[in-house]
Amino acid sequence: MVNMEKCEGGIRAVFTDGSTVRGSVLVGADGPTSIVRKFLAPTTHELHRLPINAVGCALEMSEEQVNYFKDHVDPLYFMGTHPETDTFVFWSLLDTPTSPGNPYRAQVYFSWIACDADEELLKQPLLDVFREKGRPFFPRLREIVDSLPDDTVVTKVNLVDWPSVEWDNWNGTSTLIGDAAHCMVIYRGEGVNHAIVDACQLADTIKSAFDGRISIKDAVNEYEQKMRLRAKEAVETSRQAGHDGHCYEKVDKEGSFALLGEKPV
Ligand SMILES: Cc1cc2nc3c(=O)[nH]c(=O)nc-3n(C[C@H](O)[C@H](O)[C@H](O)COP(=O)(O)OP(=O)(O)OC[C@H]3O[C@@H](n4cnc5c(N)ncnc54)[C@H](O)[C@@H]3O)c2cc1C
User: Which residues are in coiled coils (predicted)?
Assistant: First the structure.
């Protein structure tokens, strides 16, 4: 989409090939770098960058390795903070083998508070950075990190969020859902949950409009009011969890509410 324009009865989206689509409401569900958000919040759409660096990759694990994690850590998912380096680790299973003997797939992610030394560190191949950050963890994780093939694709993850600031919904003809509306960092694992609740709440309010109980404009405003109340707090708590997750003292001794507390959705 390259443009959006008000038109008779609603809104029109204009695409790169010149084609257009008209509708009553244009919903931006286009993720953290949303183009729709640029139109609705032209001066405030930019993402906020957190002072955290992170690297992650998808990797293969044997059944024996996965069973060790299952029996000693968690069968699907774990996160933690290293007591000496304060590096944060996140592991989750992505896929199980389709036939016996084939490997499992998992993802591993390490993050740390950005510091001056990172400028040199991040000039190295990212697989070396990944290994350096992973080696201090428990031996079975170190073994996995050390045995990664040299062609493993490691990605630098940018930690960004957007605290759902007020936007102009063009008189109720456009709105945002999911990460476009409230991109949050991963430390509470809440982003998808909110995206699903957004879709349900927006569908409910739009249904009320089609049933003739309220106008489309009021439906969009009602959705945004409910969503913002819930999502703004989630973005802020996730940001706090991002800070707490890199402080072992805070997690271990004080018990970070942001990181460990119950999720509202
Ligand atoms: C490493 C990592 C781990 C995570 N773990 C969790 C977790 O455990 N639990 C959780 O709840 N959340 C988690 N999240 C967050 C979760 O992934 C997001 O909140 C969720 O994907 C948001 O969904 P979305 O549909 O709003 O956006 P997206 O998933 O970003 O989808 C947007 C879609 O729009 C498409 N798009 C964008 N621009 C255009 C365009 N111009 N034209 C056409 N299409 C376009 C994109 O290609 C994409 O398919 C994690 C995120 C990361 C990065």
Answer: none
